Amino acid sequence: MGKTNDWSNPEKQQEAFNTILEQIESGKSLRGILHKDRDQTVLPSRGLFNKWIRNDFDLKEKYNTSMELRADLLFDEIIEIADDTTGDTYTTDDGKVKTDHENIQRSRLRIDARKWKLSKMIPKKYGDKQFIEQEGEGITSIPITAWIKQNTIGNKKDSD
To answer: Is residue 155 domain-resident?
Structure first.
């Protein structure tokens, strides 16, 4: 009858949480893992998962680490797509080698989509625009949009 799991059991929570993290680290999205047709006896709802990471700092840190590993996987995919020349050319019936521009454009689209996603997932590491700020001894690099938010009127710290 589709009975859901008793999520108050800490062992079942941890088992489900670990399963989710493993899938994230293999490249799946949280939305894809916790879709409405999931096995509800094995995986919680998206809302419950979000509650777990909101209420437990250690779980949130583990989730963030898995998301970073997933981002690194996407980065690796970009290199693999760029290096893969399979299908970039084809031979016509009369023996001439032609460039398959559609295949090349699709590869470019796949790369651009992953680059965009990475820039949104981890902008400090994969964002396009960086702003270098020096304060005292150290130099920090932050995305320009974050710097603008910090330094707009109403957000500036009073210098008095």
So the answer is: yes
Residue-number span of the structural domain to which 147 is assigned: 129-160
What are 41-91's pLDDT values in tens digits?
899 999 999 999 999 999 999 999 999 999 999 999 999 999 999 999 999
Alpha-carbon distance 133 to 50, whole Å? 34
Are residue 32 and residue 87 in the same domain, yes or no? yes
126 has a pLDDT exceeding 90: no
Query: Do the beta carbons of residue 71 and residue 122 sit within 8 Å?
Result: yes
Residue written as token pair 């320009």: 144
Q: Is 138 helix (H, G, I), strand (E, B) or coil?
A: strand
Measure the N-to-C terminal CA separation of the chain; round to a whole number of Å: 66
**Residue 4 within any structural domain of the chain:** no
Decide the pairing of beta strands 130-135 and 97-99.
Answer: unpaired
DSSP H helical ranges for the chain: 10-25, 30-33, 46-55, 57-83, 101-121, 123-126, 144-150
Same-domain check for residues 133 and 122: no
What's the pTM value of the predicted model, to 2 decimals? 0.70
Both 63 and 117 in a single domain? Answer: yes
Q: At what angle do helices 46-55 and 10-25 cross, to 10 degrees?
A: 100
